[in-house]
Amino acid sequence: MGATCRAPGGVQGCWHQPDARRKGHGFMRIRPIMLITATAAAIATAGGMATAATGTSTPTPTAHGKPSGAPTATPHGAGSSATGVTATPAASTVTSTATAPIDAGAVAEILASCLGSEASQYHAVIAVRAPVASSTTDGVVIAVNSANQYVQCESKGHKGNSRSVPPTFINDRLWGTGHLIEYFDSFSAPAGAGQSLSLGAGHYTPDVAKVTISYGDDPTQYPAVMAGGAFVHTAAISTSPNGNSFPPDPYVHAYNADGKEIYNQKTQPTVKGTVGDG
């Protein structure tokens, strides 16, 4: 099974990435993202670059939260001919959001293989390994140039790859209501039997002090890794070993310095481009 791209609003394709621009990453199915408030986890930084987060979470009641547990799906052809009962796979759950730092030498190689001759124009602001690896991705590097243009390079070992062509295509492409959160690429991919990798990134404006993520209908909230105007969220998701369940959708929430929620992706739409608030 190939990677599953996610797009706010349920539009087919990777975030901000029409099919004509998408690189070949196998079969892709889009679903929205999701996020909610969380106790801030420690983020180790070195030289201005965020390198890791603990993944500590704190369930917090919210006006937008639903009962815990992602909705289940019924697989086609799963009914028993003897009883007529249809099997329902167990709900997917988040098992870890912990990240680990990517060392500077590996970051340089990831950017070089991702950006080619333009790599020297960018400096990394976030570089982390995900809690679980797929066949093609084990982490991500977010870098920015002097023109404040971001790139998102997924890593596998010391090699990097961008899902957008050109890599800067993620900029000024899809914003949340209020023009506070900008979405880069987000996807999920199988990570072995009963596991899936969920990974996404974006940009936040100076009005945002904290970005958090929750998954599916579970109100548990996880902090995103934030640095240099960019954020990353990644998680290991438990799924049905027979492939009949899918990772829960992540949703992005943003909070100001007073702790007030100022953006909720689950209830507020996304808009294309940079004009208007949706």
Summarize the structure.
With 278 residues, the protein is mainly beta. The protein contains 1 helix and 20 strands. The strands form 5 sheets. Strands 1, 5, 12, 13, 16 and 17 form a 6-stranded antiparallel β-sheet that branches. A 5-stranded antiparallel β-sheet has the order 4-15-14-18-19, with no helix packed on it. A 5-stranded antiparallel β-sheet has the order 6-7-8-9-10.
Word description of this protein:
The chain is mainly β and 278 residues long. It has one domain (4-54, 91-268). The protein is 4% helix and 36% strand. The chain is built from one helix and 20 strands. It has one helix at residues 104-115, and strands spanning 4-5, 43-46, 49-53, 58-59, 93-96, 100-101, 123-129, 139-144, 150-156, 159-161, 174-176, 181-190, 195-204, 210-215, 220-223, 225-227, 230-238, 250-255, 261-264, 270-272. Strands 1, 5, 12, 13, 16 and 17 form a six-stranded antiparallel beta sheet that branches. β14 (210-215) and β15 form a beta hairpin. The protein starts with a strand and ends in a 6-residue tail after the last strand. Mean pLDDT is 75; it is low at 7-47, 54-89 and 274-278. Keywords: Membrane, Transmembrane, Transmembrane helix. Residues 51-63 have a biased composition (Low complexity). Residues 1-20, 51-86 are annotated as: Disordered.
